[in-house]
Amino acid sequence: MNMKIYDVVAHRSFEIDDKDTIDYCFKTYDHVGSKHEDYCICIGINGRQFIVTPKTFDKLFKRFSLNKPCPLVWNIMIEDFNHGHKIIAYNIFNHASFLHDIRKINFEIEDREEFFKEILHVLQYYFWAKCEYEVLVGSMFDNTFRKIDGWDQIQLNLPSFKEFILDNRNKI
Asked: Which of 19, 20, 23 is nearest to 44 (CA)?
């Protein structure tokens, strides 16, 4: 396949573990004779250079990002169905798909406000109205209960969560 590579659109780097890093950049390219531009990704893994498609890069990124634990902790209350229906604290950063999505957003979006706006969309997708993240909260003195989910719990502390996520963006 003949292609002409034009300019670098973005460049990022992340550590896989203590000794391995991946540097990558998005470049626009165009098939010779074609009138449309597309993106390819040039990645360097420990000094070796590769050019891959966005789909292949997404598979690589998912494989590496899911293996890297996240040091951040933000707990919500959930019911533990497996151990006597107890209410436990659950760290939302232990959710593998959620963590993958926010890591992907972290590498794609530079602007802090736009980044946080996208994080809110991902939070809603994973923690809003999902039965595994819902608990009943009520009064000790009468029988009024309200169902709250993970999204409601995060919204209660949204200004603190925003400050936390933006201050710790480099640890995601």
From this structure: 23
Which residues have a Cβ under 8 Å from the Cβ of 33 and sit 6 or more positions away?
A: none
Q: By residue range, what is the domain housing residue 159?
A: 75-171
Q: Are residues 94 and 125 both part of a single domain?
A: yes
Do 108 and 46 share a domain, yes or no? no
- Determine how β-strand 86-91 pairs with β-strand 48-52: unpaired
Q: Is residue 48 part of a domain?
A: yes
**Domains in the chain: how many in total?**
2
Question: What are the beta bridge partners of residue 58?
Answer: none
136 and 59 in one domain? no
Query: In tens digits, what is the pLDDT along the chain, a chain of 172 residues?
Result: 444 444 444 445 555 455 555 555 554 444 444 444 455 555 565 556 666 666 666 666 666 655 677 889 999 999 988 888 899 999 999 998 898 889 888 878 889 999 999 999 999 999 998 888 899 899 889 889 999 999 999 999 999 999 999 999 888 8
d(CA 170, CA 39): 25
Query: What are the backbone angles phi and psi of residue 7, rounded to the nearest 5°?
Result: -120, 160
Q: What angle do CA 164, 112, 60 make, to 5 degrees?
A: 90
Same domain flag for 53 and 121: no
- Assess contact for 156 and 77: CB atoms under 8 A: no
